[in-house]
């Protein structure tokens, strides 16, 4: 016998019914998850409120800082204005001080010139032992001019006065003799003759003849001492012009130097 083919009848899957206990457990789980979500949301809200409070605090701090910066900016501007005013005053006073200093320098130069003008007929003699003049300094000086400088002592060499300068020193050194001649031409003749002699001695003592100058000009002259010694060693004639200028003549050409360095540089070109 033939058999009829079996038909495949699809099976229907059906969820089995849950028991009341399972349904109760499922409800409890959902409630727990809901509570957890609420708790998390509450935590987030609390955190957001804290952040908002912090932001508000930072904002207030920034506002205070901005206000402080603005105040500092105002004070800085005020300070800059004051500094600018002080600089203007300082510059003005500096210019005034410079002007005053220049005026004082001009007056000092004038005083020095007038002092030296009053000394222009004077000759300062050094190296004469104390008491060598024997109560007649006037006659003694004239004899020095005649015998040691080979000058013709006549009316042109009339002396206004002659004296030792300053009190006698305890160190035994002789005091300078200050001679004031009546005529400037006589003073120039004495100094010229002394330069030409180069070395003058009196009873074994070397004596020297100098211009009588103020301390200010003497200090300027002393700056030339080293270079003057070099001129002397080379036997190059020179003279000092007022106030402090060295003049020399080489190969019939005159040279004038206002500083020791310039004079030394000139000597270097002669090597």
Structure description:
The chain is an alpha+beta fold and 271 residues long. The chain has three domains: 40-116; 120-212, L1 transposable element, RRM domain (Alpha-Beta Plaits, 2-Layer Sandwich), CATH 3.30.70; 214-271, 2-Layer Sandwich (Rec A Protein, domain 2), CATH 3.30.250. It is 56% helix and 15% strand. Strands 2-3-1-5-4 form a five-stranded antiparallel sheet, with helices on one face. α5 (225-233) packs parallel to α6 (260-269). The protein is rod-shaped, with a radius of gyration of 56 Å. The chain starts with 19 loop residues before the first helix and ends with a helix. The mean pLDDT is 85.
Shape, principal axes of CA atoms: rod-shaped
Number of domains: 3
**SSE order, one letter for each helix or strand:** HEHEEHEEHHEEEH
Q: What is the name of the CATH class of the largest domain?
A: Alpha Beta
> Runs with pLDDT <50, length 5+?
none
Strand order, largest beta sheet: 2-3-1-5-4
β-strand number: 8
What value does the Rg take, in angstroms? 56 Å
Mean pLDDT: 85
How large is the count of helical segments?
Answer: 6
**Name of the CATH architecture of the largest domain:** 2-Layer Sandwich
Structural class: alpha+beta
Largest beta sheet, briefly? 5 strands, antiparallel
Helix content: 55-70%
User: Beta-strand percentage?
Assistant: 15-25%
Termini distance?
A: 157 Å
CATH homologous superfamily identity of the largest domain: L1 transposable element, RRM domain
Q: What would the CATH topology of the largest domain be? A: Alpha-Beta Plaits
Features:
271 residues; alpha+beta; Alpha-Beta Plaits; Rec A Protein, domain 2; five-stranded antiparallel beta sheet; three-stranded antiparallel beta sheet; 6 helices; 8 strands; rod-shaped
